[in-house]
Structure formats: C-alpha cells, structure tokens
C-alpha cells in the first residue's frame, strides 16, 4: 500500500485489468497507424483502387521520391484523421454527459463498423467511408482513454499508467506491421484481412467496457456520488478513501458552476494547459513520427528496398518502438537520414546494402527516442493539466489538434517527399530543435501533483504562466 498526501491505494488485479483493457483504445489507434502504410504498398490494393500508382510504381525508370505521390492515395490515410478531428468534439460532450465508460464503448463499436466497411470495400467511396468510421472511433477513443487512465490512476503511478496508452499504440503498430508482412503474400485479398483484423482490438475494448467501472470523477460529476465512492474504493483497493473522495467532490462542485466549458477555456486557469496541449500535439506531429509510421513500407520501397525488405524493415522499426528503453538524441538521427539520402539516393536506383542498413538503424534510433519523449508525454500532459471544469473540452482541443496535424502529415508527406526529396528530413529536424526549446521554457513539471491541484501547484508557480493569475 502506498500513501501520498492522504491518497491511499494499492495495486490489485482489478485495477490493472482496468488499465490494460482501457489501453486497448490505444492499440486500436496504433493498429490503424501501422496498417495503412503496408496496405498502401500492396499491389492487389493498388490495382483495385489506385491503378495509376501501381503503373507508376512498376515503371522501369520511376522517380524514387515520386512514385507514390497521389492525393487520393494519401486521402486513404488522412481521411481517418479529418473525421477524428470533428468526432473529438462530439466525444467531449459524450464523455461529460454519458461518462468515460460508455464513450469508450461507442468508440469500439464505431471502429468495428469501420473495419467491416473497409474490408468489404469494392470501390473508393466505401473504402473512404470505412476510413471515416475508423476516424470517428479513433476520435472517441483518443478523447476518452487518456482521461480514463489519468482519472483512475493513483498519483504516484499516474505517469506510468497513462503511458500505457502510448505503449499500446506502439504495440498496435507492431502488430499491424506483422499482419501486413503475412497478408502481403495472400492474393488477392490480403489487404482485406489486414483492414478487417482491426475488429480484434476494438472487440477487446468493447468487452472490456463491461468489466471496468467508470471513473469516480465522472460518476460524481454526473450526480452519482455513492457510485463514485464505491468505484473509488474498488480502483484504489482500499476502503479509506475519504480524503481523495472529498477532493473529487469539491472539484465537481466547482465544475458545476461552469455552464459553458468551451467558453471557459479562455479563462486564466485554462489558458496555460490549452496552449501547452495544442503546442504538444503540433510538435508531436512535426517530429515526423507519423510520416515514418504511416508510410514505413512505402518509404523503404522509395529507398530501393526490394521484395519483402520494406515490410521487414517496418516490422523492425515497430519492434524497436515497443521495446525502447532510453531517450536518444532525436534531431541528430533525423538529420543523419537526410544526409545519407541526399548523398546516396538518386531519383532512380536504390541505396547500397550498407547504407540501407544504416538508414534502418537510424530510423530505429529515432523511433526509440520518440517512444520515450514526445510520444507518451504528448498525451499524458494534456490529460492531467486541465482543471475539471474544462478537462474534457480542453482535451478535445488537444485530440482535434493532433488529428488535424496528423491528417496534414498523412495528406502531404508523399507529395513533400517528391518535391523536397531528402531535404524533407531536414525540415523535421529543424522543428525538433524548436520544440526542445519550447519544452524547456514553457512546460511545467507535473510529477506527484494531484490532477485537481495543477492550477495552484504547477501553473501559478511556473515562471512564465504565473503572470496570467
């Protein structure tokens, strides 16, 4: 048992089950990130939906950097995130009015509908419809799961528990890469298996919603104080929860005074977390991580990898993403990739084997660095720094910003690669230095601070943000 400032808790099988089952929302997200790039590189898929890309890919003297440059092919990936952007605001309302548990259930069901539609698609309209349904499911899941994990985690374990979301994203990416590695050899419907298999993590989340309880914060806020206290005892594994429960009740009473959550995001207590939440999501995408994760097989084919090489390389980077245990110097590796491609990869031909291996190793180091920095913290910090009265509304802005810039990267990367070629990686490198400086000067330390004490103990004491209070 651990005691911090009157917050009693112990780790039980039930609470660990809650964390893991909810984190499958992250696995849904990760699976879709990983699956789209592999599917986009499958010949059977291209022949059915993007014949011009297939023909260009097979041209004897194709431009390495431009053979996948197709706006509709990129729309296959980006349409999901555009729909997720819109859905996140509806998810914010659902999470507030219906609770975290019901909203996660809705996310899983819509995601399953997207998987079925995508796998059964015979034309582009149904294919894009499936992507839109995927996006709505992701919007609901990404809005709710980090909030759920933050609100059920004890103070001393909150960071680790919330990082489960990012960890399961990486596991989903790895699983997707492995699925693609198998299904690429199943003709002509391997791509259907890849997309349809997305039902598995969504089904697990759906079943999990019958096991987990809603968060005490959500129950009390929705006028169910007794259920809230019972849930708190259950997730803390102890009966002495009076101190924490009274803090939750007080926060909920204060939140009830706020009638327009989105309007109140302009008030001083919410401005710092709103600015930071938006900034983190923009910077997370400007690391270029999703350019790698979405289009890893495509990118490795661009570099001249043949046969199963692109999918094997994608699996390796996915595995590194999961197993990462230290932070590397992220900008240095991204710049190194740019220099290698600039020097060694012309418009036709490919990298020699030595350079190809070095590029894969650098990509793995870059992914490793992201997995222990901007990856998990981009979701953790916004989920815990808003005051309760604007938490779901503020986090909706974080999710929608993430989805917007994810969509921009997904829609623009292959075209940017065609236009800027190796200089694309220098572009991302420059942003990484900028975001490092912003983190130093603008991010507060939140470790060990109760989520309902962030304003007093983090924002009001920060040398920059305290000027707003």
3D architecture notes:
The protein is mostly helical and 469 residues long. It has helices spanning 13-40, 43-49, 51-58, 71-97, 100-120, 124-152, 158-183, 190-196, 199-208, 216-221, 225-236, 242-256, 271-286, 289-302, 309-323, 330-344, 353-371, 374-385, 391-420, 423-442, 454-459; strands at residues 2-4, 7-9. It has one domain: MFS general substrate transporter like domains (Growth Hormone, Chain: A), CATH 1.20.1250. The protein is built from 21 helices and two strands. Strands 1-2 form a two-stranded antiparallel sheet.
Write the layout of secondary structure elements.
Blueprint (H helix, E strand, L loop, with lengths): L1 E3 L2 E3 L3 H28 L2 H7 L1 H8 L12 H27 L2 H21 L3 H29 L5 H26 L6 H7 L2 H10 L7 H6 L3 H12 L5 H15 L14 H16 L2 H14 L6 H15 L6 H15 L8 H19 L2 H12 L5 H30 L2 H20 L11 H6 L10
Antiparallel strand pairs: 1-2
Helix pairs in contact: 1-6, 1-7, 1-9, 1-14, 2-3, 4-5, 4-6, 4-19, 5-6, 5-8, 5-9, 6-7, 6-18, 6-19, 7-8, 7-15, 7-18, 13-18, 13-19, 13-20, 14-15, 14-19, 15-17, 16-17, 16-20, 18-19
The count of strands amounts to: 2
Oligomeric nature of the chains: single chain
Which regions are unreliable across 5 or more consecutive residues at pLDDT < 50? 324-335
What is the level 1 CATH name? Mainly Alpha
Mean pLDDT: 79
Q: Characterize the overall form.
A: globular
Number of domains: 1
Helix content: over 70%
SS content category? mainly alpha
Specify the biggest β-sheet: 2 strands, antiparallel
CATH topology tier name: Growth Hormone, Chain: A
Keywords: Membrane, Sugar transport, Symport, Transmembrane, Transmembrane helix, Transport
Subcellular location: Membrane
InterPro entries: MFS_dom (IPR020846), MFS_STP/MST-like_plant (IPR044778), MFS_sugar_transport-like (IPR005828), MFS_trans_sf (IPR036259), STP/PLT_plant (IPR045262), Sugar/inositol_transpt (IPR003663), Sugar_transporter_CS (IPR005829)
Protein name: Major facilitator superfamily (MFS) profile domain-containing protein
């Amino acid at each position: 048992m651990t005691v911090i400032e009157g917050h009693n808790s112990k780790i039980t099988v039930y609470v660990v089950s809650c964390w893991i089952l909810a984190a499958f929302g992250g696995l849904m997200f990760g699976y879709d990130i990983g699956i789209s790039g592999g599917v986009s590189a499958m010949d059977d898929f291209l022949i059915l939906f993007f014949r011009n890309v297939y023909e260009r890919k097979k041209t004897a003297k194709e431009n390495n950097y431009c053979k996948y440059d197709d706006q509709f092919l990129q729309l296959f990936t980006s349409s999901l995130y555009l729909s997720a952007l819109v859905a996140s605001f509806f998810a914010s309302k659902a999470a507030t009015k219906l609770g975290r548990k019901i909203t996660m259930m809705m996310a899983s069901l819509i995601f399953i509908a997207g998987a079925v539609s995508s796998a059964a698609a015979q034309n582009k309209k149904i294919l894009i419809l499936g992507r839109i349904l995927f996006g709505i499911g992701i919007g609901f899941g990404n809005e709710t799961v980090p909030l759920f994990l933050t609100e059920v985690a004890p103070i001393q374990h909150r960071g680790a528990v919330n990082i489960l979301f990012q960890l399961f994203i990486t596991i989903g990416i790895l699983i997707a890469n492995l699925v693609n590695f198998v299904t690429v050899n199943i003709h002509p419907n391997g791509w259907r298996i890849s997309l349809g298999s997305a039902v598995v993590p969504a089904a697990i989340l759906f079943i999990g919603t019958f096991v987990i309880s809603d968060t005490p914060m959500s129950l009390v806020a929705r006028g169910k104080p007794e259920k809230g206290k019972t849930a708190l005892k259950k997730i803390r594994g102890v009966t002495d929860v009076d101190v924490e429960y009274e803090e939750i009740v007080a926060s909920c009473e204060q939140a009830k005074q706020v009638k327009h959550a989105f309007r109140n995001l302009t008030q001083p207590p919410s401005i710092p977390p709103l600015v930071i939440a938006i900034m983190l999501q923009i910077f997370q995408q400007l690391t270029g991580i999703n350019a790698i994760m979405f289009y890893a097989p495509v990118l490795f084919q661009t570099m001249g990898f043949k046969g199963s090489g692109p999918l094997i390389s994608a699996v390796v980077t996915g595995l590194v993403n999961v197993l990462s245990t230290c932070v590397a110097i992220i900008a240095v590796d991204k710049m190194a990739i740019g220099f290698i491609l600039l020097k060694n990869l012309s418009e036709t031909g490919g990298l020699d084997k030595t350079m190809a291996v070095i590029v894969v190793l650098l990509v793995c180091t870059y992914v490793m660095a992201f997995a222990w920095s901007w990856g998990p913290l981009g979701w953790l910090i916004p989920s815990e720094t808003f005051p309760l009265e604007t938490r779901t509304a503020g986090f909706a802005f974080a999710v929608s910003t993430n989805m917007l810039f994810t969509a921009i990267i997904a829609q623009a990367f292959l075209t940017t690669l065609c236009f800027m070629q190796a200089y694309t990686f220098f572009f991302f490198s420059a942003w990484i230095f900028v975001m490092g400086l912003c983190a130093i000067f603008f991010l507060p330390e939140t470790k060990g601070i109760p989520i309902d004490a962030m304003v007093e103990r983090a924002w009001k004491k920060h040398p920059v943000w305290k000027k707003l209070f």
